[in-house]
Amino acid sequence: MEEDVKPFSQACENNKEPILCVLRRVFEPCRRVMEIGSGTGQHACWFASHLDHLKWQPTDVSQNLAGIELWRASCPSPNLLPALTFDIRDPEWPAPGCDGVFSANTAHIMSWPLACAMIERVADNLPAGGVFALYGPFNYHGTYTSDSNRDFDQWLKEADPERGIRDFEKVDQLALSHGLHLFEDNPMPANNRLLVWVKRPQDLI
Questions:
Q1: In whole angstroms, how far apart are CA 91 and each of 34, 58, 81, 117, 126?
Q2: Eight-class DSSP state of 62
Q3: pLDDT digits (tens, 9 = 90+) for 98-122
Q4: How many alpha carbons fall within 13 Å on the CB side of residue 95?
Q5: What InterPro entries would the database entry show (predicted)?
Q6: Which residues are within 8 A (CB) of 94 and not within 5 positions of it... i.e. 6 or more apart?
């Protein structure tokens, strides 16, 4: 039946292995990771099955949960938890106790105020030493890193003026102001980056 067909993103298939190579290293000390904006569920299934030392908690807005659960049902990983409903504007944090957060291709889809709220809420809910990994395209020094990113940004803004590729410096400054210290800036295929921050102890903020 049509409703039983799992959602699919080719981009997830293309980038899952390069992202995993970084996550294996940066999430090594983590034991419970929350994913913001799990989308189709492909990343959750793939990362959980290859990071069996931790529990992977997918989250997304309610309309995407059915698709994520189809992927989870096909994934034999016991460390992949049932998906939880979460919108950045929700007052409650859905997965307290997580020491890692991952999000892919969300900051440019959200409005800038919501992207700021995501970073602030991640910082507020991670413990000292917690890790935040954010994947997607970013501008550097106010400049696109490729013609394809320029075209993509134009497409995003035509669909919704609130969307757009974010400036790395603004994102990192905001993260730092909330106690997230940049740990790595990893180049990824297709002109993307995987930014990794670590939460500083309160007395060092």
A1: 17, 18, 22, 11, 16
A2: G
A3: 999 999 999 999 999 999 999 999 9
A4: 27
A5: DUF938, SAM-dependent_MTases_sf
A6: 34, 57, 59, 84, 85, 86
Residues 124 and 99: their CA atoms lie apart, in Å, by 12
Q: What is the 3-state secondary structure (H, E, C) of 146-195?
A: CHHHHHHHHHHHHHCCCCCCEEHHHHHHHHHHCCEEEEEEEEEHHHEEEE
What is the distance between the terminal CA atoms of the chain, rounded to a whole angstrom?
53
CATH of span 2-204: 3.40.50.150
Tens of pLDDT, residues 131-155? 999 999 999 999 999 999 999 999 9
Q: Specify the residue for token string 């699919």.
A: 8
In terms of Cα–Cα distance, which of 95, 180, 205, 147 is closest to 195? 180
Residue written as token pair 């992927």? 71
Q: Measure the CA–CA gap between 125 and 203, rounded to whole angstroms.
A: 16
Close Cβ partners of 193 (under 8 Å, ≥ 6 residues apart): 135, 136, 137, 138, 168, 185, 186, 187
Cα distances from 79 to residues 116, 155, 190, in angstroms, run: 30, 37, 30
